[in-house]
Amino acid sequence: MHVPLRPLAALVTAGLCLTGLTALPAVATPIAEPVGTTTGDTGGLDLDADGSVLHEVSTRAVAPGLDLTSFQRLEDKGWTSGNILVADLTEPTLSMEVLDSGSTTSPATVLDQVAGTGAVAAVNGNHFDMNYTNAPVLTTITGGEVVNGYREANPAFTLADGVAAIEYLSAAGILTIGGAAHELAGLNRATVPAGAIGVYNERWGSASLDRPAGLPGETNVASAVVVDGVVTAVTDTVGEPTLPDGGQILLGRGAGADVVRTLEVGQAVEISIEPSSDVDLAIAGNVPLVLDGELANFPDEPVAARTVLGLTEDGSELLVATVDGRSATARGLTRVEMAELMIDLGAHSAVNIDGGGSTTMVARPAGGTEPELVNVPSDGSPRVVANSLSFFSSADTEELTDVAVRPVLDGDDAHHVLPGLQRTVEGVGLSDQLAGTDAQGRFTVTSPGSLPNGDDANAVIAEQTRTGAVLTGVTPGPATLSYKASGLTGAANLTVLGPLDHVTASTSQIAMEGEGDTATIALTGHDADGFAAPIEVADVTATIGEGFTIAPAGLGASRSPSPRPPAPARPWPSSRWPAPWSRYLSPWA
Q: To the nearest 10°, the Cα dihedral for 531, 537, 538, 539?
């Protein structure tokens, strides 16, 4: 449910005693369990580190050749929560690109970078010049094009004609003036080294070149605009670049500025930027973590969320691993601990890329259309980052090859339902790519010893369409929900819990600053044994005090804007749960 931002003590209602919620513990957002998820499946990965207890693990296919394993384990020093994408690099329908917002200095969240591109999964990319130019500070190549080039070699994940490697990579160039050759320090660099020359093109964007030029400290700066190999302008100032189509800017500092200043309008020059290896894709990191299956030599760092790229010994699989950090359920890992995890996962080589609050992994759920957030960012929400390593699938997306059934609400506990309450489910058609495709079918529910849709099943179907159904819990115990369409059948296991014992809310306090603000609350029901199930809005009656409104915000939440001119309290929506909410809140009231 959504309720306005205001202390809950002020929101005493007739149907839902929100005052009692002020003492309730906040409920963490559940980890999503999309279609095709196999709980307890490690995906063949070794996640049983010495001294650890594997608490939760599940694996699901994202696309042909791309699987996602999510896990949580308790180690001697605390909880570790992580996600591993395993990419089969021999799968012909699987490909990769480095994506950004369209400008290398305009950061965006990973979700925003992949939106509408057709990507099926992605992870954050290079370290970047955060809060300044926001440009990557290491070499980036995609589609054979150098996007950011640095003459300093760093460990990088690379692809060349389908062959993967983790190697030291740089990208620099030559400026030829007449018969004289001058070294270029790179392309679209966040900073140009003192005494050097850098090149900037349209991929840089609109960010000022003052920081790359070393201003305000640098006293000798010059720049030149080059179009189609001909100098069109020379100046001693920089600032925000203005580039004609196909144009480039030469930016010099110190001795480099002296070279640029010798250029004249109309003069022909040649600019070339090349990587140290002929690769189609590259994303560089700061340190190697694993070399030849052993810990590399690198300085350790304190625990943090981390993102690492690793390769198996034969180079056939790419392991993309993230671990969460700075939370009660995820302490993060040191660099050494992360390297040890990569070795356990089978990495023969691995490179550390941007982590901390930047660590982000997204993946499309089977039957979905766009990737969704997989990890829990340590900043509390996804950070804007410079770029992302993104995965694409060219497998067929139209023909129906499989079906699946799932609760519409996310989370492991969505497979639970309380007696007398409902669970909404949907049938999903799947293509070869695991993208959603049209399917029209019928649902049945059974329990051990019952007939399909029998009255003696632990759950019954209250209503259904060709693509969705509403179940009601009846008797505690297991139930199997099946969806059959076009001769294909998918199934999901549900559990009807014991009778409702108490309710918790997704937040223990809400506050509101002004008119029009909104806040969201979700409710979770628990039986006497502590097992939980999210409560859908159709099972709720809620009223709110004068000056507020409350309305559904999806199956499992409600929303209310902040106060407007006085309005009468109104019920929302009609209840299938006749007893007052305060009865169930009493354990914590």
A: 40
Buried-exposed string 240-251: b where 16+ CB fall within 10 A, e elsewhere: ebebeeebbbbb
| CATH class of residue range 1-27+397-589 | mainly beta
Fold classification of 171-275 is Jelly Rolls (2.60.120)
Distance CA 138, CA 156 (A): 9
> What beta strand segments (E) does 474-552 contain?
477-485, 488-496, 500-505, 518-521, 523-527, 532-534, 551-552
pTM score, whole prediction: 0.82
Distances (CA, A) of 374 to 85, 325, 410, 537, 566: 11, 14, 12, 25, 41
Q: Exposed, middle or buried, 2 (CB in 10 Å: 0-12/13-18/19+)? A: buried
**Per-residue pLDDT reduced to its tens digit, 521-565:** 889 999 999 999 999 999 988 877 777 777 787 776 655 444 433
Q: Classify 395 as helix, strand or coil.
A: coil
Hey, is 204 helix, strand or coil?
Answer: helix
The DSSP result for 90-153, as a single string, is T-TTEEEEEE-SSSTTS-B-HHHHHTTTT-SEEEE---B-TTTT--BSS-EEETTEEEEEESS-
Contact indicator for 310, 321 with CB cutoff of 8 Å: yes
Q: What is the pLDDT of residues 132-162, one digit of tens each?
A: 999 999 999 999 999 999 999 999 999 999 9
Neighbouring residues of 119: CB distance < 8 A, sequence distance ≥ 6: 97, 99, 364, 371, 390, 391, 392
What are the sequence ranges of the domains in the chain? 1-27+397-589, 38-167+279-393, 171-275
- The per-residue b/e assignment along 4-13, b for 16 or more CB within 10 angstroms, e otherwise, is bbbebeebeb
Q: What are the φ and ψ backbone dihedral angles of 581, each rounded to 5 degrees?
A: -60, -35
Are 228 and 156 contacting, i.e. CB atoms less than 8 angstroms apart? no
Q: Judge contact between 135 and 384, C-beta under 8 A.
A: no
C-alpha separations of 383 from 73, 239, 300, 466, 587 in Å: 25, 27, 24, 40, 38
- Find residue 180's DSSP bridge partners: 177
- The amino acid present at 129, given as its one-letter code, is D
**Which of 159, 117, 152, 124 is closest to 138 using CA atoms?**
152
